[in-house]
Design goal:
heterodimer; A: globular; B: mainly alpha; MetI-like fold; 12 helices
C-alpha cells in the first residue's frame, strides 16, 4: 500500500522585488523537500520562523503548485489548484489554521460555517451537531458567532469544519501557537484522539518542540527551506544529530532539578539567515561550530548516517561532535 | 425575590435586544426616506397641479408662511408654476437618478473589483488602468462629452452618473477581497473546495458590505449634487422636466426676490442626503454582528 501523501524533491520559490528600481531576487522558500506521511500517522515539522514550514504545508495540501518536484496524494498526482478536480479533492484533505479567528467568517454563526464543507461537497447537513460535539463544543455553540467564543473553542470550531467531510489528511499549521498554554494541551489531546478514532494522516507544523514530540510519529527539522534531519521524535529530540537540531533542542526550557546535570543552552551566533541570500554549501555553516571547508563548498544531502541510520543532512554527521565545542564560537549560557 | 427576576432578565436579554427600536435620528431618517419614496411613487395622485401648469396671474406668489394663500402652499415661480407640484415631481426624478446611479456605480465597481482580485494578472492590470483613467478625468468633462454626443435620456443620464464613483468601489472591493483571500476566512473557505461564486457571494461580499454601504452613502449626496450641477449647466434634466437640482439652478436667479423657489428643493436635498447618511451609519453597525 502506497503512502497517504508523498512529496518528492519539491521546490517553491518566490520573486521578491528589492526597492523601487532594484531587480527582483528569487527567494527559495522550499528547496528539494521530500516527505512521506502514512495513514493514521503524524509527521511533525519543526524549524524557526521563515524556514519554509508553512509553504511546505501549503504544497503538501496542493494549495500551491511546486516549481519542481511532485506531490502525490494516495498514489495520484495532486490536481492543479482551483480546478474542478482540485475542489473535489478538498473533501479528503483539510487544513487547521494558526489563527482561528482569522480563518472563520465573523459574520456567520459557527453552525453555518461547519455545515459549509458539507454543502459544498453535497453531503448530509445533519452531521453538524455530532461534529461539534465530537470536538468538545456544545449544541448551542452552533448559533454563536466566532467572536463570542474563546480561543480554544474557535480552534475546535475550525477543527470541526476541517473534519466535516471526514478527510484522510490534515495539515495543522501551528494549530496551538495562538492559544493559551492550558488550552494548547486540550487541543493537542483532541488532535491525537481524532487521529486514533478516524485514522487521519497529519502534517503537524510547529515551532514548539514539545508539542511536536507529543503528537508526532516522525519528526523533520527544517532549516532555510531544506529538511536537515528526520527520524523518530524521541531520537531526534533527545539525541539530535544535526548541529542545528542540537541548538533547537537545547532551547527547550527545562525545569532544573537539584543534582540533575544542567544541559548547556546553545546560543547560535550570527543572524538568522536571509533566504534571498543563501550561504554557499551547507546553509547552516555560518552559524555552525563544526563547519569545515567542505561545509562551505558542498551542499550536504539528506542521507542515513553510518552509525545508527538517522537521516541527516550534514557533512560531519558521522563524526563524534563534542558538546563542548559549542563554547566557541557559540557561548554557553548557564 | 431578587433571584428569580435576575435569572429571567439574564435569559431574556438576547431576544429583547433584537426588537430594540433604532435611535431617534435614524427613525427620522427612515421616516423621511419613506416619505420621499411615497411622494415619488404617488406623485401623480398627490400633486395639486401639473408641474408644467402656468398660473400667470400668480407669478412669484409667496408660500403660505410668508403671506401667500393656500392655492399655492409653497408659492409659485417666475412663470406661475406651483412650487409644491414641481417639488413633488422633482423628488421623483432625483430619487430615480440618485438611487439608480448609486446602485449602478456600486454594482459595476464591486464586480470589476472582484474580477480583478480573482483573476489577478492581466485582468487586474486592465481594471486598475480603467480605475486610474476614470479617476484622472474630470468627470464633468466626460459627462459633457457623452451628453453632447449621445443626447439626453433618463437611462443614459443614470448610467453616466453611475460611472461617477465606480472606481472607489472597485478599489475597495479589490483590496479587501485580496486581503481576505490571502490569509483570512476567504482563503479558508476556498480550500474547503468552494467555488469562487460562493466565496465572493456568501463570504467576501457580506464582510465588506459595511465599507461599501458607507461608500454608497457618501456617493449618494454627491450624485444628487452632480445632477444639480449638470442640470444647471443645461446638460442634465431638460426643461420642462424638473429635478431638485434643476429647480435649485433656475431658482438661483430669483434668490433675492423669491427665495422659496430655491429653498424648498434645497431643504429636500439636505434632509434626504442627511437621512441616507444616518441610515447608512446605522446599517453598518447593524450588519456587523461583532458590534451588536
Amino acid at each position: 500500500m502506497s503512502a497517504l501523501l508523498e512529496a518528492r524533491g519539491v521546490s517553491r520559490s518566490y520573486r521578491l522585488r528589492r526597492g523601487i528600481l532594484g531587480g527582483s531576487v528569487e527567494v527559495r522558500a522550499v528547496d528539494h523537500v521530500s516527505l512521506t506521511i502514512e495513514r493514521g500517522r503524524t509527521l511533525g515539522l519543526v524549524g524557526e520562523s521563515g524556514c519554509g514550514k508553512s509553504t511546505t504545508g501549503r504544497l503538501a495540501l496542493g494549495l500551491e503548485r511546486p516549481d519542481s518536484g511532485e506531490v502525490r496524494f494516495d498514489g495520484t498526482p495532486m490536481p492543479s489548484p482551483n480546478s474542478a478536480e482540485w475542489r473535489r479533492s478538498r473533501a479528503r484533505m483539510q487544513m487547521v489554521f494558526q489563527d482561528p479567528l482569522g480563518a472563520l467568517d465573523r459574520r456567520l454563526p459557527i453552525g453555518a460555517q461547519v455545515a459549509e464543507p458539507l454543502e459544498i461537497h453535497g453531503l448530509d447537513n445533519a452531521r453538524v451537531i455530532p461534529l461539534l460535539e465530537s470536538v468538545g463544543l456544545r449544541r448551542d455553540h452552533a448559533a454563536r458567532y466566532p467572536h463570542e467564543l474563546s480561543g480554544g473553542q474557535r480552534q475546535r470550531a475550525v477543527l470541526a469544519r476541517a473534519l466535516a467531510t471526514d478527510p484522510a489528511f490534515l495539515v495543522c499549521d501551528e494549530p496551538i501557537s495562538a492559544l493559551d498554554v492550558s488550552i494548547q494541551a486540550q487541543v493537542m489531546n483532541l488532535l491525537t484522539d481524532i487521529q486514533a478514532e478516524r485514522g487521519v494522516g497529519m502534517l503537524f507544523i510547529s515551532h514548539d518542540l514539545r508539542a511536536v514530540r507529543q503528537v508526532s510519529h516522525r519528526v523533520a527539522v527544517m532549516y532555510l527551506g531544506r529538511i536537515v534531519e528526520e527520524g523518530e521524535p524521541d531520537a531526534v529530540l533527545h539525541r539530535p544529530a544535526h548541529p542545528y537540531s542540537r541548538a533547537l533542542v537545547s532551547a527547550i526550557p527545562q525545569p532544573r532539578r537539584a543534582g540533575a546535570r544542567f544541559a548547556p543552552r546553545i546560543v547560535l551566533q550570527g543572524d538568522p539567515p536571509n533566504p534571498a541570500d543563501r550561504p554557499s554549501g551547507c546553509a547552516f555553516h555560518p552559524r555552525c561550530a563544526f563547519a569545515t571547508d567542505i561545509c562551505r563548498a558542498v551542499v550536504p544531502e539528506l542521507a542515513p548516517r553510518a552509525s545508527d541510520g538517522r537521516t541527516v543532512a550534514c557533512h560531519r554527521a558521522d563524526d563524534d561532535l563534542p558538546a563542548e565545542a559549542w563554547t566557541t564560537p557559540l557561548e554557553r549560557v548557564a | 425575590m431578587p433571584e428569580a427576576p435576575m435569572s429571567e432578565v439574564a435569559l431574556g436579554a438576547p431576544p429583547a435586544r433584537k426588537r430594540e427600536l433604532p435611535p431617534p435620528l435614524v427613525m427620522f431618517g427612515l421616516i423621511w426616506i419613506g416619505l420621499m419614496l411615497v411622494v415619488a411613487l404617488a406623485a401623480d395622485l398627490i400633486s395639486p397641479f401639473a408641474y408644467t401648469a402656468l398660473d400667470l396671474r400668480n407669478r412669484l406668489s409667496p408660500p403660505v408662511f410668508m403671506g401667500g394663500d393656500w392655492l399655492h402652499p409653497l408659492g409659485t415661480d417666475e412663470l406661475g408654476r406651483d412650487v409644491l407640484s414641481r417639488l413633488i415631481y422633482s423628488i421623483r426624478t432625483s430619487l430615480i437618478i440618485a438611487f439608480g446611479a448609486t446602485i449602478v456605480g456600486a454594482v459595476l465597481g464591486t464586480t470589476l473589483g472582484f474580477l480583478a482580485a480573482h483573476f489577478r494578472g492581466i485582468v487586474e492590470n486592465a481594471v486598475m488602468a480603467l480605475v486610474d483613467f476614470s479617476a484622472s478625468i474630470p468627470f464633468l468633462i466626460l459627462a459633457l462629452a457623452v451628453l453632447a454626443f449621445f443626447g439626453n435620456s433618463m437611462l443614459l443620464f443614470v448610467l453616466l452618473l453611475g460611472l461617477h464613483a465606480w472606481e472607489r468601489y472597485a478599489r475597495i472591493a479589490r483590496g479587501l477581497a485580496i486581503s481576505a483571500s490571502a490569509q483570512g476566512y476567504a482563503g479558508a473557505v476556498r480550500q474547503l473546495g468552494a467555488r469562487p461564486l460562493r466565496v465572493y457571494g456568501r463570504h467576501i461580499l457580506p464582510n465588506i458590505a459595511s465599507t461599501l454601504i458607507v461608500s454608497m452613502t457618501l456617493a449618494f449626496p454627491e450624485v444628487i449634487l452632480l445632477e444639480s450641477g449638470l442640470s444647471f449647466l443645461g446638460l442634465g434634466v431638460q426643461p420642462p422636466a424638473t429635478s431638485l437640482g434643476n429647480m435649485v439652478g433656475f431658482g438661483r436667479e430669483y434668490l433675492t426676490r423669491a427665495p422659496w423657489i430655491l429653498l424648498a428643493p434645497a431643504v429636500v436635498i439636505v434632509l434626504t442626503t442627511l437621512s441616507v447618511s444616518l441610515i447608512g451609519d446605522w446599517l453598518r453597525d447593524r450588519l456587523d454582528p461583532t458590534l451588536r
